[in-house]
Specification:
single chain; alpha+beta; two-stranded antiparallel sheet
Length: 176
């Protein structure tokens, strides 16, 4: 998919890399209510109550480095009970980009820790913050003390698939 085919980001804050330079610049980002609703839909979570970030961007001829902090409050769905529960995220992160295209086009041998290639002269810090939020979210959120729906509605005994057959034949565990 090319950049022109991709949908507009839910939370966008584009910067021109040439305006940053080696000295760097600091950016304070905060999403509004409409943006947070669209982010929640994209991340398939009931709601995002807060998404803020502070990012420091430095650039050279060969690369761009972003260091920052993310703060977010979300409402998530418990994987066990399906109840809504809060999740708070407060983390630091670092992201590196290279301006030098890779000579190795073989994806299988690509180093996953290598900086991503930066195409063009702009960078969307809002989209990077949403991506960082996605990476920081608990993959299987479970509310403390939540009983799973399977535990609540499953039969009380741990019946084997052959329990009904044993009963029909009049056998017990003692006289198999």
């Amino acid at each position: 998919m090319t950049q022109n085919d991709s949908p507009a980001p839910e939370f966008s804050y584009e910067i021109d890399i040439d305006d940053v330079g080696r000295a760097g610049k600091k950016f304070q980002l905060s999403s509004n209510e409409t943006e947070r609703a669209m982010i929640a839909k994209r991340l398939k979570t009931p709601s995002v109550e807060k998404l803020e970030g502070e990012m420091r961007v430095t650039a050279s001829k060969t690369g761009v480095r972003i260091t920052g902090d993310i703060a977010a409050d979300l409402t998530r769905e418990c994987v066990a009970s399906l109840e809504h529960m809060p999740e708070t995220i407060a983390e630091s992160f670092e992201i590196d980009f290279t301006r030098i295209p890779s000579e190795n086009d073989d994806v299988e041998e690509e180093d996953l820790d290598a900086p991503e290639f930066l195409e063009g002269e702009t960078l969307d810090l809002g989209e990077l913050l949403v991506q960082q939020l996605s990476l920081s979210m608990e993959p299987f959120p479970r509310k403390e003390g939540a009983k799973s729906l399977a535990e609540a509605y499953a039969p009380k005994e741990n019946a084997s698939p052959f329990a009904g057959l044993k009963q029909a034949l009049g056998k017990s565990d003692d006289n198999q």
